[in-house]
Design goal:
With 67 residues, this protein is mainly beta. It is 10% helix and 33% strand. It contains one helix and four strands; from the N terminus they run ββαββ. Strands 1, 2, 3 and 4 form a four-stranded mixed sheet that branches. It comes from Chitinophaga pinensis. This is ABC transporter permease.
Length: 67
């Protein structure tokens, strides 16, 4: 979906069939990473909604705004 929407990655990777089921991985955007105060996020484990996830990627923020 990330590729389909043309969203660019700031770090890490998107999900891929080549890696099998990645139900324990998560991708955030730059704003979420900044809000959580995480530095060097790729590979870090976080607790999100009561489940542990490894941060796989960080998407760049969109540059357009809907007014």
């Amino acid at each position: 979906m990330i590729e389909t929407l043309g969203i660019e990655m700031a770090a890490g990777q998107t999900f891929s069939r080549h890696f099998g089921a990645e139900t324990d991985k998560i991708i955030f955007n730059e704003a979420a990473i900044k809000a959580m105060g995480i530095t060097d996020p790729i590979g870090k484990i976080i607790d999100f909604r009561g489940k542990k996830f490894q941060i796989k990627g960080v998407t760049k923020l969109p540059f357009s705004v809907i007014a």
